[in-house]
Every structure is written in structure tokens, then in C-alpha cells.
TrEMBL record:
Residues 30-40 have a biased composition (Low complexity). Transmembrane segments: none annotated. It holds the Pfam family SRR1. Residues 68-236 form the SRR1-like domain. Residues 1-40 are annotated as: Disordered. This is SRR1-like domain-containing protein.
């Protein structure tokens, strides 16, 4: 993950190492707004993403994640997901030209898209995709639109969460999670309760939604990839079986 020099904020931890946390609110972390001098074209971003996407789909992490999705979907009564929200994947053309931030943004975005594609395959219906990232340039937004994701301005995505939503936010700050989880979603992918309880100076009130999910949801470890998903957990609500699902014959890549 990017270090402080890459424009990421570091959070103190009681034990072990914690990856950088970042927010999806551009007024919370100064300097993380859109690149004022973007240099990458849409074609360049697309070409880079194709390479990163192929690496992700061939990785052991995606193979392990597919196995988890194969187990979780039926175990949680095949939840009906109608909407998927990606919070703060990072800019595809960062202001400081950080190779780490750029690659992380692409990997985390592709991981989100592959999860959605997998859930679409298993459920048999399309899922609306939304992304919120204050650091996006206009070209970044065009790229997301080309991928089939609707870009919304912060904090619009938080109020879009409902009981049929997948919320995906890797290494966000706690207050971002708290805003996004005002209404508990069907699936949450992000730092789990144990990660926050290991940190120093955490406001207990910000963990209320996390504690509810930890007590009532099934949780699964999200396989790491070069520290990009370190400490990430998937929380799945056990719901009423959906009537429009089908038995999967395999998993889409």
C-alpha cells in the first residue's frame, strides 16, 4: 500500500501493522482531490487496466475469493443484491504520480467488478454499480462509465445504501464506514471489527454498525494480494432466499 508520502494517512495500531486508511470525503484529507494536471488519456487508462485486470483474474487471490463466494452465496440464502457501491478505490491518474496508488486503484476496482459479475452470475440478474471517489478526474469518471459504473459525488453514495446493497470499501477511515453503514447492507466488504478494535483512539460510537454486523452476519476472510486487501473481511447477512436465483454450474471469471 502507499505510505504517507503517497498521500495516504496512517492510523496508529495497538499491535502489528495496519495498512494506510483513506477517506472518500475530499474535505477530510487535504491534498487528495483530483489531479490538477492529469496526464493520462482514457485510452491509456483503459490499456493499463486491461493488464492489471488480467493479472487479478489469474491471481491466487481471485481463485481463493471465488471459492469463498461459491460457499457464501448459498450459505446466506442467496441474497438478492440489486445495487453495488464501491467507495474510494483511489484515482487512476494520481496527482503525485504514485505507481502504488495507481495500481491499487485498478486492482481494487477490478476486484469489485469481479465480485459483482460473480454475484450476477449466481443470482441470474444484473446489479447496478455505483462508485464514489473525490479524487477522480473527469477522465477517471469517463473510464468508470465505460466500465458500466455510475459515478456519484461524495457523500451521495452513503444515502443510497439499502438492505439489498453490496457496500465495498477497502481501507476506509472509520467515519466513512459509519456514514456508509447507517443502513446495514446485505454484504459489506471492508475492514472488520477486529481490525478497528486493534487500533488506538477509536471512537466506540463509530463501531456500532460494525458490531451489529459482526454479531448477526456471517463473515469471511478476504484473500490478500500484495497487502492491498490486508485485514479485509466480507460480512454477509443471512436473508430470505431470493425467488429469481439459479443453481450455479460454475463461477464466472
Amino acid at each position: 500500500m502507499g505510505q504517507e508520502g503517497d498521500g495516504w494517512s496512517q492510523v496508529s495500531r495497538k499491535r502489528g501493522r495496519k495498512p494506510a486508511q483513506r477517506s472518500t470525503r475530499d474535505d477530510e484529507l487535504p491534498g487528495l482531490g483530483p489531479n490538477p494536471n492529469p496526464g493520462l488519456s482514457l485510452a491509456a487508462i483503459q490499456k493499463y487496466h486491461e493488464r492489471v485486470s488480467q493479472d487479478w483474474l489469474e491471481s491466487d487471490s481471485w481463485e481463493a475469493l471465488q471459492a469463498t463466494l461459491r460457499d457464501a452465496f448459498p450459505a446466506c440464502n442467496r441474497p438478492s443484491i440489486t445495487k453495488a457501491i464501491c467507495l474510494g478505490p483511489g484515482p487512476f491518474d494520481p496527482a503525485n504520480d504514485s505507481v502504488s496508488i495507481r495500481r491499487t486503484a485498478h486492482v481494487q476496482t477490478e476486484a469489485f467488478r469481479s465480485i459483482v459479475a460473480n454475484l450476477e452470475y449466481q443470482s441470474g440478474h444484473k446489479i447496478k454499480c455505483i462508485v464514489q471517489e473525490p479524487s477522480f478526474t473527469n477522465v477517471d469518471k469517463m473510464f468508470c462509465n465505460e466500465l458500466g459504473m455510475e459515478v456519484v459525488e461524495s457523500p451521495a453514495a452513503f444515502s443510497m445504501v439499502d438492505a439489498d446493497t453490496l457496500v465495498y470499501g477497502i481501507h476506509m477511515e472509520l467515519r466513512t464506514y459509519a456514514e456508509a453503514l447507517t443502513t446495514l447492507p446485505a454484504i459489506f466488504v471492508g475492514a472488520g471489527l477486529s481490525e478497528w478494535e486493534a487500533l488506538m483512539d477509536v471512537d466506540p460510537s463509530g463501531l456500532e454498525s460494525m458490531r451489529k454486523m459482526d454479531a448477526a452476519y456471517k463473515n469471511y476472510r478476504f484473500p490478500d494480494l500484495n497487502y492491498m486487501f490486508h485485514g479485509t473481511t466480507m460480512y454477509w447477512r443471512e436473508g430470505v432466499p431470493s425467488s429469481d436465483t439459479k443453481e450455479p454450474e460454475g463461477l464466472a471469471k
